[in-house]
Write a structure and sequence with these properties.
Layout: H1 2-6, E1 15-22, E2 34-38, E3 49-52, H2 58-63, E4 68-70, H3 72-79, E5 87-90, H4 95-98, H5 102-105, H6 123-131, E6 134-138, E7 144-151, H7 156-172, E8 183-190, E9 196-198
């Protein structure tokens, strides 16, 4: 992690990202890796959280730190082209309405999903988790999972702890149907800077 900081070429507090090539076939449902992990040291970025909920849950969402709370008004705003948020949380009973904007949210990775804990009755807890450093990840069509594990300004040990937590979570999610090596390659890099390869044998 110290080397990643040294080779950082940007003048801003760049994101430090881990890129993992997995030995899976994302086209198979049981190998389409997707999940969440709470990074022990956070991401260094405050995420903007939107909550789709019924009126009786609005105060709970706001108290937990949600930036935008509502339902029909937010859906209309998104239909008009607004998507200025990082994570969307929704209650199960409003998902039928939220589904109308799935074609807008889906391609941007903003659609609430039970697998990532963003479709839940406990909207306050979900907002707290996201604000506290909980991130979601999914394998892309090339079999690669990308995740931020902090910023260049983080101490190397904190970046390493975050990366270890993310990688350990990935290892636990290995599908039984995946054959051969699961972790094929791991690269750590800051934004717009060279990557540093990690020996997959060191990951447990």
């Amino acid at each position: 992690m110290a080397l990643v900081k040294e080779v950082n070429l940007t003048k801003f507090d760049a994101s430090v990202d881990v890129h993992v090539r997995l030995g899976v076939d994302p086209r198979k449902a049981d190998q389409a890796i997707r999940g969440t992990v709470s990074l022990p040291n956070g991401t260094g970025k405050t995420k903007t959280v939107l909550v789709f909920c019924t009126s009786d849950k609005e105060e709970e969402a706001r108290a937990a730190g949600a930036d935008y709370v509502g339902l029909d008004d937010l859906i209309q705003k998104i239909q008009d082209g607004w998507t200025d948020f990082d994570v969307a949380v929704a209650m199960p009973q409003v998902m039928a309405k939220v589904g109308r904007i799935g074609r807008i949210l889906g391609p941007r990775g903003l659609m609430p999903n039970p697998k990532t804990g963003t479709v839940t009755q406990n909207v306050g807890d979900a907002v707290t988790d996201v604000k506290g450093g909980k991130i979601s990840f999914r394998v892309d069509k090339y079999g690669i999972v990308h995740s931020s594990v902090g910023r260049v300004s983080f101490e190397p040990i904190k970046l390493a702890q975050n990366a270890q937590e993310f990688l350990s979570t990935l290892v636990k999610m290995k599908p039984s149907s995946a054959k051969g090596a699961y972790l094929k390659s791991i690269t750590v890099a800051s934004t717009m800077s060279p990557g540093v390869k990690v020996d997959v044998k060191t990951i447990r």
